[in-house]
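TA notes, week 10

Several of you asked for a full example with nothing omitted. So below is the full record: structure tokens for the whole chain, then the designed sequence directly under it. When grading your own attempts, check the secondary structure regions first.
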């Protein structure tokens, strides 16, 4: 797991990073070749620290600046007495500017680039310096073969700036992408390292600003903000000694149609573990009498329709609707009643599917779709959502208002405030399990009830949920269940370290 505490929180799109680099060169007098030499030196120090026993180094170099970075790494490795091979993809004659100068310096140091004819099996370490950040179309031909060969061999892989084949802004693998053991990124972190296929491709992530002055970064507004629980926990200060349950919010969970009572139960228990003072579960009469048998702290009310739900809404500070709601007449009538209320809402699961059928805008709700629900809300296919998750989150917020939490690999939080959208860098694949989204619904509702505004509750809730999932995954990702996340919420939320 990467040491995220050392990573910046600002993320920049490719065009923004090019602008930052141009400012550093043109206005601050840092030569482009100097930046390339700094990048190669940072990467080389990292590989020597991480793989000190590696003696046979293979660099796969493209013809752009990413390849130039690779030539710097190769030259430094030669000077250090390592056995080095540089395998060139694309004609060497296509090298221009700083990349050509770096190639010339490598030759002057005694290195001889070779045309790529396959990935050697005897390398101790592979350096991916093929494509960098400029890729916009699927990788094909020899380039795709080379990336697949990198992935098929057993040596660890260090990617320079970005794993080749990964789209820098969206995290999509464009046909095929390098699956690196580690990535060192330069100048600015790219959103694609945290979205879509990015977390699977990047490995351990490190960053260097290459000593570019901080004033340069003031010239660009970040594209996304990376958030994590270490940062977001500051939203929840210590409770006053005089606190009582009424100060900590009354959350109403609406859901649990016949056969789906567990979803409402998980959301309710998660709300309690995230600090709600009171939690009521409004659920179907078929199972209301026993829903809280093993969790008596939950108040449970049988609701037959709006007439029995409305008094419960009146007493609540925030309403979360959707877990196990279903789309039968019972769930539809409850959804309409909740929509007509003036309470802050958290909307999930089947409530989102009902919203897709009859679109509406809300000003004080948090919508928490997974990609399938997002696709239904937008009237597109899931692949379109996943191709550009930031754009999908933005469009959801534009159409439906409030705050949008687009769940998935790199959960995004998009509000309507001037703050940039956020992406959570905590979490793990073990959380892709039934009920995990219901737990998130309860957590966000609990934080909303404790006084955070909708966007702050969404940001802190996503990170608390993800960090709890990471704690639960210490015993293994495979087999992790939603209840394990609930069990970790209290310790994570209170900053209690694992024993």
């Amino acid at each position: 797991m990467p040491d995220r505490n050392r990573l910046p929180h600002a993320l920049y799109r490719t065009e923004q990073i090019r602008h930052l680099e141009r400012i550093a060169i043109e206005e601050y007098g840092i030569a482009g070749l100097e930046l390339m030499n700094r990048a190669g030196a940072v990467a080389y120090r990292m590989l020597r620290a991480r793989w000190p026993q590696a003696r046979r180094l293979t660099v796969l170099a493209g013809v752009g600046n990413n390849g130039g970075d690779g030539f710097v790494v190769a030259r430094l490795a030669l000077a250090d007495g390592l056995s080095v091979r540089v395998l060139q993809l694309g004609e060497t004659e296509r090298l221009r500017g700083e990349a050509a100068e770096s190639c010339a310096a490598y030759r002057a140091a005694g290195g001889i680039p070779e045309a790529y004819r396959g990935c050697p099996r005897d390398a101790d370490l592979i350096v991916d310096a093929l494509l960098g950040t400029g890729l916009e179309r699927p990788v094909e031909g020899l380039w795709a073969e080379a990336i697949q060969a990198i992935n098929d061999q057993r040596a660890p892989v260090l990617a320079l700036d970005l794993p080749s084949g990964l789209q820098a802004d969206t995290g999509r693998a464009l046909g095929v992408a390098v699956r690196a053991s580690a990535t060192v990124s330069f100048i600015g972190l790219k959103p694609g390292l945290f979205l879509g296929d990015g977390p699977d491709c990047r490995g351990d992530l490190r960053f260097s600003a290459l000593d570019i002055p901080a004033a340069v970064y003031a010239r660009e507004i970040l594209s996304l903000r990376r958030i994590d629980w270490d940062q977001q926990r500051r939203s929840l200060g210590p409770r006053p000694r005089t606190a009582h349950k009424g100060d900590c919010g009354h959350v109403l969970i609406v859901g649990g149609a016949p056969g789906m009572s567990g979803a409402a139960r998980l959301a309710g228990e998660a709300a309690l573990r995230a600090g709600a003072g009171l939690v009521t579960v409004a659920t179907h009469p078929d199972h209301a009498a026993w829903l809280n048998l093993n969790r008596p702290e939950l108040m449970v009310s049988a609701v037959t329709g709006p007439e029995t739900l409305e008094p419960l809404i009146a007493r609540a500070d925030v309403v979360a609707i959707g877990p196990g709601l279903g789309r039968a007449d019972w769930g539809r009538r409850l959804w309409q009643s909740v929509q007509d209320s003036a309470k802050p809402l958290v909307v999930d699961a089947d409530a989102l599917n009902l919203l897709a059928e009859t679109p509406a805008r809300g000003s004080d709700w948090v919508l928490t779709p997974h990609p399938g629900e997002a696709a239904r809300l937008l009237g597109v296919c899931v692949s379109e959502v996943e191709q550009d998750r930031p754009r999908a989150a933005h469009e959801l917020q534009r159409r439906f208002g409030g705050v949008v939490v687009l769940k998935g690999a790199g959960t995004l939080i998009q509000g309507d405030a001037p703050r940039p959208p956020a992406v959570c860098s905590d979490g793990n694949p073990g959380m892709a399990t039934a009920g995990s989204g219901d737990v998130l619904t309860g957590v966000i509702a609990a934080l909303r009830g404790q006084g955070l505004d909708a966007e702050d509750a969404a940001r802190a809730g996503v990170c608390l949920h993800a960090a709890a999932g990471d704690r639960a995954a210490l015993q293994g990702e495979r087999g992790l269940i939603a209840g394990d996340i609930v069990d970790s919420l209290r310790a994570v939320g209170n900053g209690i370290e694992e024993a």
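Confidence is low (pLDDT under 50) at residues 1-5. Use that as a sanity check on your answer.
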